């Protein structure tokens, strides 16, 4: 009936208007909250009941440490964060930044703004931890603003969380540090961008028959793990989707090569997804050199071994992504303890306590080595969440122990001892819940190995790319990051990537 249709139309209009209003209200509220943090409880040496407030020092501002900070009740401790990087970096979108798919500022969040939103005051030092003394319970830190000796400070701690991450490994292959770029931090992404854009412009000044032009336009990525694959995919996208419009002839001469020592790339993924990714790379004209181990690097050439043959590959830009190695501060901590005898990272127990300093040090994320826990953001994030709940329980234990000291009679001691034991038994081992793995493989396609209950499900293609985008949007640290990343994707689809340096 026409009257019925009219009614339906009216309700649809009202609900659409309602949704827009609710959406606008939600966005305004989120923006207001992010801009205007609530007042914080100040730090103090003692609590209102006279018990001492312990000092918790957190090293690092990455996935593990920031997840801890966001989930921790910071009113329970005097919290001190030490990190040379004054921001959190959303690493999953870092491979999109050198070619300008995502702006660098969109994936960082200042430590100060994260710390300011915590319920209790947090002290932040933009400094590097040089050494930890687990016996004296001190951390030696050096402020970044000054390289002088007097910029070194000793911090006392009651509890310490080591979340310093890892550094790129080169396996001691000669010439890598001097000639290659890594893709781990913001300055790395900036360096790669400058090298790529400069090489393109430099090559454009040379004649097409000049072999130097060919070398400059050969971009080599070493390491077929997710970092290398995602970056190679982004680079090829830039060439196919943007450079081909502005420099059509030259864009055809560009060559992206991915070198991997093992028979396949992306070895952490299901076999079907590996095949899908390798097929797509071939279609995209990314040259895949598997079973090829790089042995030496000079400023213009890499030497690689494939079976019995040795090949020289000239390159213009070399990006090195062959995994992680412990940082200096982790190595120095390991050298202080006999129990720390692994070269892969700090050894911890199933409660993330550092072996050899179980009563006062926890270690989380990429700086650790524990069988079954891989160096991923997912693991570090869950470890940070777990540790926040452990530290809440630890506070209770400390309070009961303090009460015991205040009332040293048998009845009170027994009462609080029972309470301590109850809380201690409540501190369960860390249990990692694997949600799956995602990777962007170029041409607006992604692969996903998803965990649903006990089973794993595989998905690949354009729909998976949309899922990849929404998953990463949801994982962004702040509403501001989410908005900026979404705007970057829109900007690229309207105007393409910016190729200025
Ligand atoms: P980090 O996040 O590296 O943080 C370490 C922190 O310690 C930094 O703030 C650093 O400045 C600080 N620090 C360093 N030295 C010192 C010192 N001496 N004293 C004090 N602080 C120090 N994982 C996923 O699960 N999914 C992904 O999609 C994904 N994508 C990635 C893409 C790239 C390009 C890279 C490089 C990694 C990716 N990862 C991904 C892995 C993930 O980023 C790491 O596993 C994660 O960052 C580990 O967290 P973390 O807190 O241990 O270390
Ligand atoms: P990786 O350790 O995952 O892969 C490094 C690759 O380099 C390996 O396949 C190795 O065989 C190869 N390699 C080592 N030496 C070589 C040589 N001399 N020549 C040629 N190839 C060589 O390292 P990556 O990609 O840096 O990742 C580090 C961590 O971050 C991993 O745990 C990874 O899972 C995680 N990560 C996860 C992402 C995701 O889930 N999308 C994205 C990026 C990183």
Provide an overview of this structure.
The protein is an alpha/beta fold and 501 residues long. The protein has 14 helices and 25 strands. The protein has helices spanning 2-35, 63-71, 111-116, 176-179, 186-204, 211-216, 226-246, 248-253, 271-283, 328-335, 377-406, 410-426, 462-475, 479-495, and strands at residues 55-59, 78-82, 87-89, 108-110, 122-125, 127-133, 138-143, 152-156, 159-162, 166-168, 181-182, 218-222, 255-259, 287-289, 293-297, 301-306, 309-314, 317-320, 324-326, 346-347, 361-363, 368-369, 436-442, 445-452, 455-461. It folds into three domains: 1-36; 55-168 and 325-415, FAD/NAD(P)-binding domain, CATH 3.50.50; 176-322 and 435-495, 3-Layer(bba) Sandwich (FAD/NAD(P)-binding domain). 37% of the residues are buried. A five-stranded parallel sheet has the order 5-2-1-9-21. A five-stranded parallel sheet has the order 11-18-12-13-14. Bound molecules: flavin-adenine dinucleotide (FAD) and 1,4-dihydronicotinamide adenine dinucleotide. The site of flavin-adenine dinucleotide has 33 residues, from helix 2, strand 6 and helix 11.
Biggest beta sheet attributes: 5 strands, parallel
CATH topology value of the largest domain: FAD/NAD(P)-binding domain
Bound molecules: flavin-adenine dinucleotide, 1,4-dihydronicotinamide adenine dinucleotide
Approximate strand percentage: 15-25%
Low-confidence stretches: none
What is the C-level CATH assignment of the largest domain?
Alpha Beta
Name the overall outline: globular
Could you tell me the mean pLDDT? 95
Terminal CA distance? 62 Å
**Number of domain modules:** 3
**Structural classification:** alpha/beta
In spatial order, strands of the major sheet run: 5-2-1-9-21
Supply Rg: 26 Å
Q: Which architecture of the largest domain would the CATH scheme give at its second level?
A: 3-Layer(bba) Sandwich
């Amino acid at each position: 009936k026409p009257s019925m249709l009219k009614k339906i139309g009216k309700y649809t209009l009202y609900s659409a208007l309602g949704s827009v209003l609710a959406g606008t209200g939600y966005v305004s509220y989120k923006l207001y909250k992010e801009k205007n943090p609530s007042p914080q409880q100040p730090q103090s040496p003692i609590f209102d009941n006279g018990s001492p407030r312990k000092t918790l020092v957190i090293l690092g501002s990455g996935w593990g440490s920031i997840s801890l900070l966001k989930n921790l009740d910071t009113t329970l401790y005097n919290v001190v964060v030490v990190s040379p990087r004054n921001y959190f970096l959303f690493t999953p979108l870092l491979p999109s930044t050198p070619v300008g798919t995502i702006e660098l500022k969109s994936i960082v969040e200042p430590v100060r703004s994260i710390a300011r939103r915590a319920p209790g005051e947090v002290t932040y030092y933009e400094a590097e931890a040089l050494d930890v003394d687990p016996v004296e319970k001190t951390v030696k830190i050096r402020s970044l603003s000054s390289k002088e000796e007097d910029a070194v400070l000793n911090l006392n701690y009651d509890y310490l969380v080591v979340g310093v991450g890892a550094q790129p490994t080169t396996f001691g292959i000669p010439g890598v540090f001097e000639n290659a770029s890594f893709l781990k931090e913001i300055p790395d992404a900036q360096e790669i961008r400058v090298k790529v854009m400069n090489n393109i412009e430099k090559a454009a000044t040379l004649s097409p028959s000049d072999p130097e032009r060919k070398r400059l336009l050969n971009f080599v990525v070493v390491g077929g793990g997710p970092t290398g694959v995602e970056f190679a995919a982004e680079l090829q996208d830039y060439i196919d989707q943007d450079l081909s419009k502005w420099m059509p002839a030259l864009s055809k001469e560009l060559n992206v090569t991915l070198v991997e020592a093992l028979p396949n790339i992306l070895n952490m993924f299901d076999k079907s997804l590996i095949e899908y990714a390798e097929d797509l790379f071939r279609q995209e004209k990314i040259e895949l050199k598997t079973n090829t181990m790089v042995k030496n690097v000079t400023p213009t050439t890499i030497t690689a071994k494939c079976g019995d043959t040795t090949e020289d590959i000239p390159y213009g830009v070399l990006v090195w992504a062959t995994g992680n190695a412990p940082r200096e501060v982790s190595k120095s901590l390991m050298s202080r303890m006999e129990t720390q005898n692994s070269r892969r990272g700090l050894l911890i127990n199933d409660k993330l306590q550092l072996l050899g300093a179980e009563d006062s040090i926890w270690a989380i994320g990429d700086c650790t080595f524990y069988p079954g826990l891989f160096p991923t953001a997912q693991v570090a994030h869950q470890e940070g969440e777990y540790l926040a709940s452990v530290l809440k329980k630890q506070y209770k234990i400390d309070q009961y122990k303090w009460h015991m000291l205040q009332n040293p009679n048998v009845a009170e001691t027994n009462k609080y001892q029972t309470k301590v034991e109850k809380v201690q038994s409540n501190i369960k081992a860390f249990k990692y819940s694997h949600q799956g793995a995602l990777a962007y493989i170029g041409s607006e396609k992604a692969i996903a190995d998803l965990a649903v209950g006990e089973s794993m499900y595989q998905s690949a293609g354009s729909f998976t790319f949309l899922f990849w985008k929404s998953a990463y949007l949801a994982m962004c640290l702040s509403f501001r990051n989410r908005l900026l990343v979404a705007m970057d994707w829109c900007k690229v689809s309207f105007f393409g990537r910016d190729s200025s340096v």
